[in-house]
């Protein structure tokens, strides 16, 4: 106890000073004792765990095969029933999930039940360039020995099979993005001079008087619903968003003065990033948003990109009205619709 009679904090003991009450350093407790797992003690448990890992890898193989069936065996066309489309989506989703989860869970289960789990503490040491190769070779050999892949052919073979098959769906998908696809496919749509703008999906034409400030319409070319072949492909290229703003809010570029009608503008609904449908319109800010990757387009600046990964503005459809007051296209889009990796004029 310090002397409290004078109330001096430096001598009374009420305030700690340097050197008082130093705590001794903690000693390194070392590694905890190793607790062997059931598979370490029981050969039957080890074999059971090996079979479980192999089954998980086999599940991955089955998932990849399901993906193949959904992607290659089920073909879609204009007459495809909605139930067939749902079946394909289910096979693609379940196949991808099983293929990825089978490998991931299998490797985790393998590591937790069969690979050595001893904790190791190693001192840092200076790596000498001459010894790099030998050290790396030793490490790889140690990893192979500890994983047991050399002496567990069932796990090794199922893992190889699952891994090889798992990358094939990606190859099949990327095959559809061949460089040989003609970019002019997205350069021309059903829109042409005099084609009326119609409501999607009804197909009824739209009068200019029906479009009020702040409203938004999902639009297709009139006559699209009458197609018997290629309807979905044509719709995928030609879908449009139609909105009306105060004409004073529009910033019109030279040469586009007659592309809108009294503040009514029409833009492609296909995002220029990866082709998702741009379907969200903020009336107060005049922004169009893509829900996939949050690309944002400013309607007052001819759908200029103001946020997100899209690299190009949405293509504008030039419009006017006919003698009956219906909105019609002046021409086709002046630039190709769709993602920006397609060629553009």
TrEMBL record:
Residues 264-328 form the Rieske domain. Residues 1-45 are annotated as: Disordered. It holds the Pfam family Rieske. GO terms for cellular component: plasma membrane. It is a multi-pass membrane protein. Keywords: 2Fe-2S, Cell membrane, Disulfide bond, Electron transport, Iron, Iron-sulfur, Membrane, Metal-binding, Oxidoreductase, Respiratory chain, Transmembrane, Transmembrane helix, Transport. The keyword Translocase does not apply. It is found in: Cell membrane. Residues 8-20 have a biased composition (Polar residues). Signal peptide: none annotated. GO terms for molecular function: 2 iron, 2 sulfur cluster binding; metal ion binding; monooxygenase activity; oxidoreductase activity, acting on paired donors, with incorporation or reduction of molecular oxygen. The chain crosses the membrane at residues 53-74, 90-111, 154-174. It comes from the Bacteria. The keyword Transferase does not apply. Iron-sulfur subunit of the cytochrome bc1 complex, an essential component of the respiratory electron transport chain required for ATP synthesis. The bc1 complex catalyzes the oxidation of menaquinol and the reduction of cytochrome c in the respiratory chain. The bc1 complex operates through a Q-cycle mechanism that couples electron transfer to generation of the proton gradient that drives ATP synthesis. Belongs to the Rieske iron-sulfur protein family. This is Cytochrome bc1 complex Rieske iron-sulfur subunit.
């Amino acid at each position: 106890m310090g002397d409290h009679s004078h109330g001096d904090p430096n001598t009374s003991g009420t305030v700690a000073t340097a050197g008082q009450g130093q705590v001794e350093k903690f000693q390194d407790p070392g590694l905890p004792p190793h607790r062997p797992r059931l598979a370490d003690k029981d050969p039957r448990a080890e074999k059971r765990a090996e079979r479980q890992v192999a089954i998980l890898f086999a599940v991955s193989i089955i998932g990849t095969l399901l993906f193949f069936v959904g992607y290659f065996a089920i073909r879609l066309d204009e007459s495809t029933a909605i139930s067939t489309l749902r079946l394909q989506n289910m096979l693609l989703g379940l196949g991808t999930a099983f293929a990825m989860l089978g490998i991931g869970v299998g490797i985790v289960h393998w590591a937790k039940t069969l690979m050595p789990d001893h904790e190791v503490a190693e001192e840092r040491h200076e790596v000498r360039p001459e010894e790099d190769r030998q050290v790396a070779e030793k490490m790889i050999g140690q990893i192979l020995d500890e994983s047991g892949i050399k002496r567990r052919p069932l796990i090794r073979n199922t893992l190889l099979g699952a891994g090889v098959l798992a990358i094939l769906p990606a190859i099949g998908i990327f095959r559809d993005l061949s460089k040989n696809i003609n970019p002019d496919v997205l350069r021309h749509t059903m829109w042409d001079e005099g084609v009326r703008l119609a409501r999607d999906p009804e197909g009824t034409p739209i009068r200019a008087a029906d479009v009020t400030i702040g409203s938004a319409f999902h639009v297709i070319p009139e006559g699209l619903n009458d197609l018997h072949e290629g309807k979905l492909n044509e719709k995928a290229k030609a879908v449009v968003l139609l909105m009306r703003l105060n004409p004073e809010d529009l910033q019109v570029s030279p040469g586009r003065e007659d592309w809108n009608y009294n503040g009514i503008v029409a833009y492609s609904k296909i995002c220029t990033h990866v082709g998702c449908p741009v379907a969200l319109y903020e009336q107060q800010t005049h922004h169009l948003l893509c829900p996939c990757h949050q690309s944002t387009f400013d309607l007052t600046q001819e759908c200029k990109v103001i946020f997100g990964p899209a690299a190009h503005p949405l293509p504008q459809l030039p419009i006017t009205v006919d003698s009956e007051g219906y909105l019609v296209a002046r021409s086709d889009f002046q630039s190709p619709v769709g993602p920006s990796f397609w060629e553009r004029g």
